[in-house]
Amino acid sequence: ETGVTQSPTHLIKTRGQQVTLRCSSQSGHNTVSWYQQALGQGPQFIFQYYREEENGRGNFPPRFSGLQFPNYSSELNVNALELDDSALYLCASSLFGESGRAEAFFGQGTRLTVV
Amino acid sequence: DAKTTQPTSMDCAEGRAANLPCNHSTISGNEYVYWYRQIHSQGPQYIIHGLKNNETNEMASLIITEDRKSSTLILPHATLRDTAVYYCIVRVPLNAGGTSYGKLTFGQGTILTVHP
Questions:
Q1: Which of B76, B72, B59 is nearest to B20 (CA)?
Q2: Which of A6, A17, B23, B116 is most buried (CB neighbours < 10 A)?
Q3: Cα nearest neighbour of B107 on chain A
Q4: pLDDT of B103-116, one tens digit each?
Q5: Of the given ranges (A102-106, B12-16, B22-26, B81-85), which has the lowest mean pLDDT?
Q6: Chain A residues within an 8 Å CB radius of B2
Q7: Given a cut of 90, is residue B95 above it in pLDDT?
Q8: Angstrom distance (rounded) from CA B43 to CA A90
Q9: Residue A27: what pLDDT?
Q10: How many CB atoms within 10 Å of residue A37?
């Protein structure tokens, strides 16, 4: 167990709707990253949050947005859902600032299906 | 934009060592190499990471070549439960100032099958 929890585990939404996914990071970690994993592919980086600000973003449109809270938990929001957004969404928790503790730990993911 | 290449699949006999190769010829001097594995559609599980030196922990060993252009993950005594997709990853900075953890750049991974 990594101590990173995501909710919900599964979700079905209709095209055009909006969705919010949640992540609780591991105790002591200050950075949260979100990844999208399509079926049969490796995870793709969406964005990263540190000190409640987005500090890096992958090749994803603005309808993908996020938040990080003072307790370092995080949300991923996706607006105007498209069928191609169907994927496993992964949250990774890490600690920036101590290079010796450079592991990132993943949650179990949220399986989003858009119909 | 993965910076690594791995074989698509490998087989290993139970109890034998599994040696998984990875090429990362474009790696920069301050970029770490990570290995994760993923079973079914669970979240990736951290295995090990390194920068220049060889590393060993309770799960595996990581051998990095002197020029850092390739590495090998070694599972010393593979079991059936080690069957998974293994990802070799380079952690890439998000900005030039080094003010972030960086992103993990996943490729397609290697499907390791451990058989009895």
A1: B72
A2: A6
A3: A42
A4: 999 988 999 999 99
A5: A102-106
A6: 42
A7: no
A8: 7
A9: 84
A10: 20
- Please state, in angstroms and rounded to a whole number, the distance separating the CA atoms of residues B116 and B110: 19
**A43 and B105 in contact by Cβ < 8 A?**
no
* B8 at interface of A, judged by CB pairs closer than 8 A: no
Q: Looking at beta carbons, which residues of chain B come within 8 Å of A23?
A: none
pLDDT digits (tens, 9 = 90+) for B34-65: 999 999 879 999 999 999 989 999 999 999 99
Question: What distance in Å separates residue B77's CA from the closest CA in chain A?
Answer: 22
Name the residue facing B104 among A45, A50, A111 (closest C-beta): A45
Is A31 within 8 Å of B101 when comparing Cβ atoms?
yes
Task: Give yes or no for residue B94 having a pLDDT over 90.
Answer: no
Amino acid at A92: A
Collapse the DSSP code of A66 into the 3-class scheme (helix H, G, I; strand E, B; otherwise coil) and give the result.
Answer: strand
